[in-house]
């Protein structure tokens, strides 16, 4: 019995195990001593050895099932969950083979439980692929030891059948000598084995059924896949194959820690701009070029505006400053203007439209050394550039010569960086370019990438649909980033546009992993937070929207015109950075006000949506934290995190409102889903959960939600599971095992839930 | 000389842990161990995207190899059965072998790629294979130049 929670180590927890061991070993020993000699003589000499081997197999599997770690997941370290528990949703959805599976937050272990993972209240830990907690081995049955448990059941069934049948043969042959010791003992043995054979047979049959369907006991009993598709099944044969042939997964706890120490010493390398930006260029170039006429002012205002939420901007700014310092100190800059000018162009076009007639890209171009011929080449003859081999990296002397100009470019990019948080995803690329060039083999490849990237970005101007592979390869965030701004600018009523119904599970999965603390300016933060907002995903999903395409074609012409204008121009006089910034600020301030108005509208809409969500029938996947449902502050145990008011503008709230249209839940669940659906403090969440669930009948909707909660409510009263053992009416048999106690305990903790829910399970025993 | 020594000490201890980026598991193919290829935004200006993606892809490959249901794992199971599982006392399972390989790979990646960039990859097994944790360190010395300079000047004054 591995070390578990307090309940697993209680003396009373060992009673079933000891009973099982005594019965098994005792009966079998008596069989071998009293019955087998006669069998060896009468039936055949192979009978005792075979029985012995089978018995050893039973014992081995029993031992493994008892002592093997079921796949216990270690408790997450504190720094893994940086977000306040009360602001985070209780559930997080992932897509498993096309089926949306919910991962519930485990308040004891501090992580979102992986699919099929469940928390065992007896042992007080989360177990991977949790099947059930078996009191007869006093251990959880999970991923690592399920096969041993199953084989134990199977072999025990055969052993008991063998003992019973051979004992019966013996008794039938000695009917006239029943008073003799051997006969009496054999009679006792066959009655014990016969009595326990029925439940063991039933349980074995039940688990055979589960394996064929690819379910765990937990899932079967909670009815998770009653109405839906089980994404974890591989088919009957493959399930059996997986059961027997899959490699034994490692234990996660108590691992030998023999790792060497890695020294981390500054100065740190920073990625080159060449290496980073092409990705962003490809991903962003298209949208940015397309919407530059409309969105540049908005973007600039966004960048400026995001200074207001305090936590988000400092990090990108900080890193930018550091990279700036790195640039100055190390002087390993590669010509940064080449890949970034296409991106800077829309910004700079706006500047030029605002006041400055000379876009800084001109300045960048003028200071480019002859050796760095990629820039003008890429702009003017994209086709030619594509086929050209990559030129060698220009000497750093050239780079240092353009240091002054790079600082200009840096300054202009700093505006994009102040956008903060997730948006620095794009802007950081710019900063990175100005950071030190890592002296590894990366530069040549990155330059190559940069080269093709810049040419491609130019191509993308002319042919917006031309390079899907690169764009898609670069992932969604840059696309989403600009799509977001597109949404703000295109119709100005982005707030009214409902978030999409389908979310990329990847984004949902990582939405919570922002290391940034949440802030009190919800609307701003929500739109500029590190995680993707629903509108991101909306545009990710809806990139075929007519608006998008229309703008694409419309802006393409203007952009191509601008490119041609800029292309042939040669040396142009430099303009001071200060002058450029002054002209920027006017446009920025105007856009800031516009942006604020839009966000106000967004916030109002969300407030309405949220109030609708609270009273509406469908909740979808996310459960909205509700102030009313949270425990009172006074009841909070010391040291636990207090409840926070629902963050209307927070990412989770946006997601939850966005999922309103899912319609996966039915009305009876709505009230239960509002109650205590935040992660909450450990102590308070448990009674709330069980309290809310006790009165609810199980609905027929995809029962992951209610079933999961029921499953959670089940282990919550930990004493119930063991306490019901002595009260079990029919399970005097030690082999009725785990399942009967599980079912009874479940019944005990959910007195009001419908009884007809697991006919298979109960029928299997009776 | 005292100043130089002081500066060296400052340099040696000047990397401080700032934050951690997490790469989550990719459950799209079930409960097999895979990590998402998504690039965390915190690492935008710390490491090239391709490098990290390569690392994650290689790790995914290792895990796929470890979890492959095939002849080798079947033989291992049969052997274990035949010996009443006593073979586990002597022999290392295939998964464990691959895990050691992974551990070595992560160590090598840390030394060659991540540590020079102020990052540290944590073996996912230590987190229960739930996340791939990347610790982000910052150069405290360059970030807060005044304290170090003051100490160095103090050292110099001495």
From TrEMBL, chain A:
<keyword id="KW-0449">Lipoprotein</keyword>
<feature type="transmembrane region" description="Helical">
    <location>
        <begin position="185"/>
        <end position="210"/>
    </location>
</feature>
<keyword id="KW-0808">Transferase</keyword>
<keyword id="KW-0564">Palmitate</keyword>
<keyword id="KW-0812">Transmembrane</keyword>
<feature type="domain" description="Palmitoyltransferase DHHC">
    <location>
        <begin position="102"/>
        <end position="222"/>
    </location>
</feature>
<dbReference type="GO" id="GO:0031966">
    <property type="term" value="C:mitochondrial membrane"/>
</dbReference>
<feature type="compositionally biased region" description="Basic and acidic residues">
    <location>
        <begin position="291"/>
        <end position="305"/>
    </location>
</feature>
<feature type="region of interest" description="Disordered">
    <location>
        <begin position="352"/>
        <end position="401"/>
    </location>
</feature>
<dbReference type="Pfam" id="PF01529">
    <property type="entry name" value="DHHC"/>
</dbReference>
<feature type="region of interest" description="Disordered">
    <location>
        <begin position="273"/>
        <end position="318"/>
    </location>
</feature>
<feature type="region of interest" description="Disordered">
    <location>
        <begin position="492"/>
        <end position="541"/>
    </location>
</feature>
<feature type="compositionally biased region" description="Low complexity">
    <location>
        <begin position="719"/>
        <end position="743"/>
    </location>
</feature>
<comment type="similarity">
    <text>Belongs to the DHHC palmitoyltransferase family. ERF2/ZDHHC9 subfamily.</text>
</comment>
<feature type="compositionally biased region" description="Polar residues">
    <location>
        <begin position="691"/>
        <end position="702"/>
    </location>
</feature>
<keyword id="KW-0496">Mitochondrion</keyword>
<feature type="compositionally biased region" description="Low complexity">
    <location>
        <begin position="668"/>
        <end position="681"/>
    </location>
</feature>
<feature type="region of interest" description="Disordered">
    <location>
        <begin position="668"/>
        <end position="766"/>
    </location>
</feature>
<feature type="transmembrane region" description="Helical">
    <location>
        <begin position="12"/>
        <end position="40"/>
    </location>
</feature>
<feature type="region of interest" description="Disordered">
    <location>
        <begin position="618"/>
        <end position="651"/>
    </location>
</feature>
<keyword id="KW-0472">Membrane</keyword>
<protein>
    <recommendedName>
        <fullName>Palmitoyltransferase</fullName>
        <ecNumber>2.3.1.225</ecNumber>
    </recommendedName>
</protein>
From TrEMBL, chain B:
<dbReference type="GO" id="GO:0000139">
    <property type="term" value="C:Golgi membrane"/>
</dbReference>
<dbReference type="Pfam" id="PF10256">
    <property type="entry name" value="Erf4"/>
</dbReference>
<comment type="similarity">
    <text>Belongs to the ERF4 family.</text>
</comment>
<feature type="domain" description="Golgin subfamily A member 7/ERF4">
    <location>
        <begin position="22"/>
        <end position="133"/>
    </location>
</feature>
<dbReference type="GO" id="GO:0006612">
    <property type="term" value="P:protein targeting to membrane"/>
</dbReference>
<dbReference type="InterPro" id="IPR019383">
    <property type="entry name" value="Golgin_A_7/ERF4"/>
</dbReference>
<dbReference type="InterPro" id="IPR051371">
    <property type="entry name" value="Ras_palmitoyltransferase"/>
</dbReference>
<keyword id="KW-0472">Membrane</keyword>
<protein>
    <submittedName>
        <fullName>Golgin subfamily A member 7B isoform X4</fullName>
    </submittedName>
</protein>
<dbReference type="GO" id="GO:0002178">
    <property type="term" value="C:palmitoyltransferase complex"/>
</dbReference>
